[in-house]
Design brief:
This protein is α+β, with helices and mostly antiparallel strands and about 200 residues long. It contains 5 helices and 11 strands. The radius of gyration is 18 Å and the shape is globular.
């Protein structure tokens, strides 16, 4: 998962950081998983923006593994760090422009949410588990709901062109995930603001 040109000391430090993060999240009950690069697709796919996938095809059976065993997953090699969604938490994935709008709205109402930024410009808003998302979000191809049977990468997992990082750390929220409906509502409002801005620009042109 790491750049082959990195010095061994950097690799070792990164492996330690990933392992510590995985153990800490497992102790908090988050269903963490080790991830690996996906297998290449036919046609010479270079995996540039394809995301890590669970190291085991039977990853669902690993959910709820004790932190002591989680530690062994990250002891001998550098995996990426994943968390399964749909049991403890969900995530809503958006582009960075919509993410910035929603982030400002959440700050304005005093209800921050943990937010992850991916190196490809995508943002992930973490929430409690939901059974659906509003139609305004579901109908947008650029918005993806990670719920049951899905997973997302967590910091500090490496991509080919960068590292996953927190825009808003869970500590800011006291490790209390925001209510899914509240975050969904903020994203709908942010989306409405985005559309209004586009209409103004169109009419001005």
């Amino acid at each position: 998962m790491l750049d082959a040109n990195w010095p061994d000391s950097w690799r070792g430090a990164f492996r330690i950081e990933l392992r510590a993060e995985a153990i800490g999240l497992a102790w908090r009950g988050w269903p963490v998983l080790p991830g690996v690069n996906p297998a290449p697709l036919a046609g010479g796919d270079d995996l540039t923006w394809r995301r890590p996938v669970p190291a085991s095809d039977a990853w669902r059976e690993q959910l709820g593994t004790h932190a002591h065993e989680v530690a062994t997953w990250f002891s001998d090699r550098t995996h990426s760090l994943l968390v399964a969604t749909g049991t403890v938490l969900d995530a809503i994935e958006v582009d960075d422009e919509l993410g910035k709008r929603a982030c400002r709205l959440l700050r304005a109402i005093g209800h921050p949410a943990p937010i992850i930024a991916l190196p490809n410009g995508r943002w992930l808003f973490l929430t409690t588990v939901a059974d659906r998302i509003p139609a305004e979000l579901a109908e947008r191809a650029a918005i993806q709901w990670h719920g049951k049977d899905s997973y997302i990468p967590l910091p500090p997992s490496p991509f080919q062109h960068g590292v996953v990082h927190w825009r808003v750390k869970p500590e800011v929220c006291g490790w209390q995930l925001p209510d899914a409906a509240e975050v969904h509502d903020v994203l709908v409002r942010a989306l409405a603001g985005e559309r209004a801005g586009q209409l103004v620009q169109t009419s001005a042109a």
